[in-house]
Amino acid sequence: MKKTLFDKVWDLHVVDTIENGPQVLYIDRHLIHEVTSPQAFKELEDRGIPVMRPKQIVATADHNTPTINQHLPIKDVLSRNQLNQLSINCKKNGIKLYQLGHKNNGIVHVMAPELGITQPGMTIVCGDSHTSTHGAFGTVAFGIGTSQVAQVFASQCLLLTKPKSLRVTVNGTLKNGVLPKDVILYIIAKLGTNAGTGYFCEYSGDVFKNMSMEGRMTVCNMSIEMGARGGMIAPDETTFEYITGREFAPSGNKLKRKIEYWKTLPTDEGAEFDKEYEFDAADIAPMITYGTNPGMGIKITENIPIDKNESSLKSLEYMGFQQGETLLNKPVNFVFIGSCTNSRIEDFRVAANYIRGKQKADNVTAWLVPGSKQVESQIIAEGLKDIFDAAGFELRQPGCSACLAMNDDKIPQGEYCVSTSNRNFEGRQGQGSRTILASPLVAAATAIEGKIIDITKQLN
Amino acid sequence: MQKFTTLVSTAVLLVNENIDTDQIIPARFLKATNRDGFGVNLFRDWRYLKNGAPNKDFVLNNSLYNGNILVAGNNFGCGSSREHAAWALSDYGFKVIVSSYFADIFKGNALNNGLLPVKVSEEFLKVLFQKIKENSKTKIIVNLETQIISIEAADLSEEFEIDSYKKTCLINGYDDIDFLVANKNKIEAFEAQQTQ
Ligand code: SF4
To answer: Which residues form the Aconitase A/isopropylmalate dehydratase small subunit swivel domain (chain B) (predicted)?
Structure first.
């Protein structure tokens, strides 16, 4: 039978199928962080069950960490406790932890691919919805809740009903200045925030084939914002090249054998999907969101649609926008380039390239938060930091930061923030904050101008 | 986990669509290392004004509405995977959430905590909204065994779906860990076969 990429990886990991019920799915790698793991460790301890495969777990501290003075003790007592608890739990159970300050520390979805932990054909889970990021490697990767974290601790497996399959194809060539972030914001704006519920999504077509691994990760990262549990892109030469030489990647003959296997993973010609969508790359433009869910996106030059739905009206009221108006020239005082969506080296290169020789507007506070220690070092080594410093941007230390504002990096009440993160929910970046999602290029341009501008004018 | 069979209760209405888990429990309350006590911060930023006083316009502060059932707009529980959202809803006292759509991860989290997500049709949801708005004392009956949700006085009902394995778990109060640990042999055999 002809199989999809998703089928191939999923089916190979099925340990057992319960009659009229879920399947037992084997998990190759389990990533954990400080926020969603403590209750799972406690659950196991209370039930007297040991962690079954500690060597298949990797831990990092990211959600709740400060992005300045990481060498000092954390001021907030609760945050400090949570990080201590993670250290204690990892030590007790023999789990490798990259704690704050470690050279491998970073946002879980940035550091794992970077270290070569993420590989094609694997199943990967993490107590975080953006685990879909790892699907960029042709991996079945998805977010889980804390009860499931405990299940994987206890059995290295999960009980799941196999999701349905969905394919989004984008063929053609992207226009100048249209980044992977715009592609995924466009897809979500077209399909809505629950089009993917119950599905695993494969992205196919020229656009994804020609994308870098960083770009593919940006796309897969936001699969969850259209409701899909995960997103996947078939592994190819770009994937193999990215993995080769990374710390935990196989090497030599082992790698050769793996690559042979990985080459068998792409969807068979003629395999069927439960649902399919197709878009034309030429129709995609730099995007921006105007509401309080990631599906409320428009091309930067478009006007906010007229929509009388009660929830949409509430959302616009929260954002302080009117139906039918343009976002161009709206003053913006905060810009955040970071999060597991757009905090990889390529994102900072795009930003630096635009910023070089320019000055940020006086009204803007611009935070640049790398996704990992390695990205941070690279920013410095490539001289990007000098460009940012000269332009008045603030390069901070790695972590989730203002993406979810669990630490002190909060956007104040009522303020707009053009952000490269993935969620524009009410209060996501701080109580009363108003988030506008965009690509790193649009974010950089906003910081320079102090307002939203039509970036396409400068590009053509 | 607590057993669940049938629930008869009045309901709380939250008509908003796309209620995400950041609204159910904002990130700043996720610093705890245990599962208890999240109920006080349920819907925190809708429930309280900036100065800490209760927001009179929010349904949880409206004494007309109460009960163990939350009836909410389409696509409930989207966004972050935080199970704290399910813990907060349970801790507050909800046992059933009714909506016309649930985000995947939230649905799983709820079921793992004995909180029953009941997915109804858009039409039935509209009727529920209307009946409860007309009379906040309207009783809703959720029968897990027959998989039927009904509006008592109106003699209206609808069947809902649930995975039969999950249903057994809820009715008996088992959870997935019990099941998986009992199947350890199979899992180890699978591992052995993989490394060959
Ligand atoms: S950067 Fe944001 S979305 Fe990504 S893992 Fe951290 S909190 Fe979640």
So the answer is: 1-122
Token pair 């002190």 in the structure block, residue: A408
Give the residue from A97, A190, A108, A101 showing the smallest Cα distance to A143.
A108
Q: What is the pLDDT at residue B196?
A: 62
What's the order of all strands across the beta sheet hosting A14-17?
A: A14-17, A23-26, A157-160
CB A51 within 8 A of CB A30: no
Percent with pLDDT over 70 in chain A: 100
B195 touches chain A (CB under 8 A): no
Question: Which one is the CATH code of A291-459: 3.30.499.10, 3.40.50.970, 3.60.15.10, 1.10.530.10?
Answer: 3.30.499.10
What does pTM read for this prediction?
A: 0.95
Query: What confidence score (pLDDT) does residue B151 get?
Result: 96
Comparing CB atoms, the residue among B108, B166, B187 nearest residue A145 is B108
Same fold, A5-160 and A164-283: no
Q: How many H helices and E strands in chain A?
A: 16, 19
B1 domain-assigned: no
Q: What distance in Å separates the CA atoms of residue B101 and residue A138, rounded to the nearest whole number?
A: 28
Q: Topology of domain A5-160, per CATH?
A: Aconitase; domain 3 (3.30.499)
Report pLDDT digits (tens) over A287-339. Answer: 999 999 999 999 999 999 999 888 899 999 999 999 999 999 999 999 999 99
Predicted pLDDT of residue A398: 98
Residues 91-120 on A with a CB inside 8 Å of B are none
Position A216 scores a pLDDT of: 98
